[in-house]
Amino acid sequence: QVQLVESGGGLVQPGGSLRLSCAASGINFNLYIVGWYRQAPGKQRELVARSRNSGSINYADSVKGRFTISRDNAKNTVYLQMNSLKPEDTAVYYCNAEHEVLGNNFWGQGTQVTVSS
């Protein structure tokens, strides 16, 4: 059974930082593109950042220079370090794993990030 379990969300003031973690089980982590998406109220889910095992990384323009994605294949875990947070970063953040060849796609349950003073 595949599980993606996120942690690290919460309430933070503008300009603050949070680190999200996503621990995967039931998959060969090395074969997956892993990443983070977010969905704000009334908006579509959007890509935040994703990482291929090759080292290739993509970021949404809105988070470039502020967010950093990293993966630890030995721990089957992907992280999202979020700095200089803005109120518009408020959303539910979802972990995603997509098989690079087969396209199998899995989601975590989501973790709430709220940026507010």
Q: What does the model show?
A:
This protein has 117 residues and is mainly beta. It contains no helices and eleven strands.
> What is the assembly state of the chains in this entry?
single chain
Percent strand equals: over 45%
Fraction of residues in H or I helices: under 10%
Going by helix content, strand content and strand pairing, the class is: mainly beta
Mean pLDDT: 97
Total strand segments: 11
Number of helices: 0
Q: List segments where confidence is low: pLDDT < 50 over at least 5 consecutive residues.
A: none
- Gross morphology: globular
Helix and strand element order: EEEEEEEEEEE
Distance between the termini: 40 Å
Largest beta-sheet details: 7 strands, mixed
Q: How large, in whole angstroms, is the Cα Rg? A: 13 Å
Indicate the topology.
Blueprint: E1 3-7, E2 10-12, E3 18-25, E4 32-39, E5 46-51, E6 57-59, E7 67-72, E8 77-82, E9 91-99, E10 105-107, E11 111-115
Parallel strand pairs: 2-11
Antiparallel strand pairs: 1-3, 3-8, 4-5, 4-9, 5-6, 7-8, 9-10, 9-11
